[in-house]
């Protein structure tokens, strides 16, 4: 009889220890390690990370009237804007129990993008990101990436682009002539650039 009670209790205790290890010990040790390396950020909050803060900042930003400016970063990504000002160009924040390191120093970004030794593996994109970006260079790895890279490398090679320059100039001039005809009127720029890039 005692064994019947002891086994489920033991399993429950093991599950609880694993849960606390994954959702408390690991994030706090990662935060400590990054802090010791000079990468600061908002503190980890149990289970939800910084998600509640992010939601609150977004609601506040959306409740304010839109300014007539092209600088929309503070409106669209208020948490990033705030944390870059507070913690600097490189910081860590928490998406649930997962640490996300933000790097915006050009030299470090270059090093991460080179990634010749596979030190920085690509994270699996979320459902929405994969819908937005599709199966392109930004989202794939391995042999598929090598194949796509070869194809795009040929298309964007210096000589190929030089040969396209007159056609690009002609397309842009045509678009600008259309715009001059609509001077003083509102232009649907999205459609115009869609047409331009399809030529």
Automatic annotation (TrEMBL):
- Which terms in the Gene Ontology molecular function aspect does this entry carry? heme binding; iron ion binding; monooxygenase activity; oxidoreductase activity, acting on paired donors, with incorporation or reduction of molecular oxygen
**Needed cofactors:** heme
Q: Which GO terms describe its cellular component?
A: membrane
Which Pfam families did the record assign? p450 (PF00067)
Q: List the membrane topology term(s).
A: Single-pass membrane protein
Query: What are the alphabetically sorted keywords of the record?
Result: Heme, Iron, Membrane, Metal-binding, Monooxygenase, Oxidoreductase, Transmembrane, Transmembrane helix
SUPFAM superfamilies assigned: Cytochrome P450
Cellular localization per UniProt = Membrane
Question: Coiled coil: which residue ranges?
Answer: none
**PANTHER family to which the protein is assigned, alphabetical:** CYTOCHROME P450 CYP749A22-LIKE (PTHR24282:SF226), CYTOCHROME P450 FAMILY MEMBER (PTHR24282)
Which family is it part of? Belongs to the cytochrome P450 family.
- Name the UniProt record assigns to this protein: Cytochrome P450
